[in-house]
């Protein structure tokens, strides 16, 4: 008997301590891993005072011990624990979103991204491991909610049994919280010591639906404002009626690919080599910056923003846009008598949104004639895409003027394996890539090394650029105009959490009159934009472009 009581007492102390630590961490850990202090100083993150614990403790202690309100204490404590558990699961999802997309999870709009996340994990780990990981995450989420509910119930009972001490503790800590809040005391990384992290997360989650409904109303008004909606066809893009035009998005080609010295060498070498090759062929170029509505992923949001002239930063806006009759750049070229084609190797399923953009024809992963292996997420190498475009469209001798929107995918996450450039006459039907893919290093090993991950990212961007610009140097005619840009920055794991949303954009042409029309834009000569070059929101480009190459851009 004498040995049993101390043993049980120790167990009670351990379980109470575990419950306190679990609740405390759930309340004070921020939803951005990058905001945690670096190195050993990470333990200073524990020096925070969560106001939510003070409020919940006071509410539970204020309830009488007996009567109807007294009986409500346990269900209330269980409800608080359940809520905190659910918020902790949301916080874990937020941590992942900040690490990849540099933003919070939207509990109303972001469920569509589950499919993309699953496909990414399959590409990186394989399907069996992905299924196993998904099952583990679901079970952990359920266990976390259950454990948090138990923990709050446990702490509530302890506080009730030591009511006087609990009130003294709450009063002392509340005074400290108020003082720290008034002084604005912060830890390394800008984390406030007087914490209200869980309350902020609860407010964000609760307000998601009304905020999304308000945004839907705002967007419905924005989509109706269009200076070019009623522009006559004969006044549309008049300066490019005798040109073939390529608009190309390079996946994940962000500002850091050019400016971050930790990994930009491959991209800078590619830009310099392609600059020299294009100059030798008589092409000139100008470059600037655009701010993308997304980062780390969500390429379709950037594509639709660029082509529609509207800011599309969530799935709700995207769905509303593609259900409208908004004028896109592709439709504008169609109005100017161009044949409009979309070259979309990343499209592997039905894509009804393609009708919105106004393509005369869409080439997807099934219709580009590829007979080789996939390269992780990318169904086919970018050089093959450009080779197929040459055979299917650009190289035809009996065609009219062409507008091609080409999306290149070899630089899509997870950036391994990355193919190498081969002779254009060697590409064929893509079967040549079989041995290349079989002998290449996969993404699992690359992602184990942060430095390798970054350098492979840059190498993949350089490969995409070499494929696109190499095609132009090899096959580009005198009347070809190219606009190419990145869709967004890569994941925060590559560029960090403080990176901008800026992406490079370049216009290339042999006819000097084409670039003369954008002389007033302040862009940099060449393929590499200067750090001080103008930065515009991506949604402003459509109107600037239509104005520059319409009648209002004619020299006076």
Uncertain runs with pLDDT below 50, 5 residues or more? none
The overall pLDDT, averaged over residues, is 89
What's the tally of helices? 21
- Helical fraction equals 40-55%
Number of strands: 11
Q: What is Rg?
A: 28 Å
Judged by helices, strands and strand pairing, the structural class is alpha/beta
Residue fraction in strands: 5-15%
Keywords: Membrane, Transmembrane, Transmembrane helix
Organism: Actinoplanes subglobosus
Protein name: Sulfatase
What can you see in these coordinates?
This protein is an alpha/beta fold and 556 residues long. Helix content is 51%, strand content 10%. The protein contains 21 helices and eleven strands. The strands form two sheets. Strands 3, 4, 5, 6, 7, 8, 9, 10 and 11 form a nine-stranded mixed β-sheet that branches. Helix 1 packs across helix 6, helix 4 (73-101) crosses helix 8 and helix 15 packs parallel to helix 18. The longest helix is centred in the N-terminal third of the chain and has 35 residues, at 127-161. It comes from Actinoplanes subglobosus. The chain crosses the membrane at residues 12-30, 42-63, 75-101, 131-153, 165-184. This is Sulfatase. Keywords: Membrane, Transmembrane, Transmembrane helix.
Question: Quick gist of this model?
Answer:
With 556 residues, the protein is an alpha/beta fold. The protein has helices at 4-28, 51-62, 67-71, 73-101, 113-125, 127-161, 163-183, 197-222, 255-259, 265-280, 299-308, 315-322, 329-335, 354-357, 382-394, 434-439, 443-446, 450-475, 492-495, 512-516, 541-548; strands at 49-50, 194-195, 244-250, 284-291, 339-344, 361-364, 402-408, 480-486, 502-509, 524-525, 535-537. The chain contains 21 helices and eleven strands.
């Amino acid at each position: 008997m004498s040995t049993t009581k101390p043993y049980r007492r120790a167990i009670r102390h351990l379980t109470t301590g575990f419950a306190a630590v679990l609740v405390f961490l759930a309340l004070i850990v921020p939803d951005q891993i990058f905001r945690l202090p670096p190195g050993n100083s990470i333990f200073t993150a524990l020096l925070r005072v969560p106001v939510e614990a003070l409020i919940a403790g006071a509410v539970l202690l204020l309830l009488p011990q007996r009567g109807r309100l007294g009986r409500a204490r346990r269900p209330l404590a269980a409800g608080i624990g359940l809520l905190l558990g659910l918020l902790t699961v949301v916080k874990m999802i937020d941590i992942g979103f900040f690490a990849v997309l540099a933003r919070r999870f939207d509990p109303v709009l972001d469920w569509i991204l589950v499919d993309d996340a699953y496909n990414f994990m399959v590409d990186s780990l394989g399907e069996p491991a992905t299924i196993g990981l998904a099952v583990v995450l679901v079970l952990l989420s359920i266990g976390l909610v259950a454990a948090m509910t138990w923990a709050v119930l446990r702490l509530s009972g302890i506080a009730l049994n030591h009511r006087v001490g609990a009130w003294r503790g709450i009063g002392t800590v509340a005074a400290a919280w108020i003082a720290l809040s008034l002084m604005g005391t912060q830890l390394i990384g800008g984390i406030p010591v007087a914490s209200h992290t869980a309350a902020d997360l609860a407010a964000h989650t609760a307000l998601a639906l009304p905020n999304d409904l308000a945004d839907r109303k705002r967007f419905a008004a924005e989509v109706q404002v269009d200076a070019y909606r009623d522009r006559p066809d004969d006044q549309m893009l008049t300066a490019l009626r005798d040109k073939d035009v390529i608009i190309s998005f390079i996946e994940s080609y962000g500002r850091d690919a050019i400016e971050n010295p930790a990994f930009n060498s491959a991209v800078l070498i590619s830009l310099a080599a392609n600059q020299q090759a294009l100059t030798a062929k008589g092409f000139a170029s100008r470059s600037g910056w655009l701010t993308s509505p997304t980062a780390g992923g969500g390429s379709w949001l950037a594509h639709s923003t660029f082509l529609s002239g509207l800011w599309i930063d969530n799935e709700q806006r995207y769905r509303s846009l593609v259900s409208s009759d908004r004028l896109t750049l592709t439709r504008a070229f169609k109005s100017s008598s161009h044949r409009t084609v979309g070259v979309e190797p990343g499209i592997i399923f039905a894509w009804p949104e393609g009708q919105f953009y106004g393509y005369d024809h869409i080439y997807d992963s099934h219709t580009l004639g590829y007979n080789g292996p996939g390269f992780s997420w990318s169904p086919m190498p970018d050089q093959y895409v450009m080779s197929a475009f040459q055979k299917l469209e650009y190289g035809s001798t009996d065609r009219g003027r062409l507008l091609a929107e080409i999306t290149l995918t070899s630089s899509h996450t997870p950036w391994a394996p990355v193919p190498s450039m081969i002779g254009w006459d060697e590409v064929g039907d893509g079967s040549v890539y079989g041995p290349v893919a079989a002998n290449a290093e996969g993404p699992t090993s690359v992602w184990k090394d942060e430095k390798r991950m970054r350098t492979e990212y840059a190498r993949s961007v350089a490969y995409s650029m070499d494929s696109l610009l190499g095609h132009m140097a090899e096959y580009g005619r005198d009347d070809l105009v190219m606009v190419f840009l990145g869709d967004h920055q890569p994941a925060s794991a590559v560029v960090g959490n403080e990176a901008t949303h800026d992406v490079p954009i370049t216009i290339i042409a042999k006819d000097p009159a084409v670039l003369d029309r954008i002389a007033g834009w302040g862009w940099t000569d060449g393929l590499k934009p200067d750090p001080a070059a103008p930065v515009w929101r991506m949604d402003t480009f459509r109107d600037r472009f239509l104005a520059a190459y319409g009648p209002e851009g004619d020299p006076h």
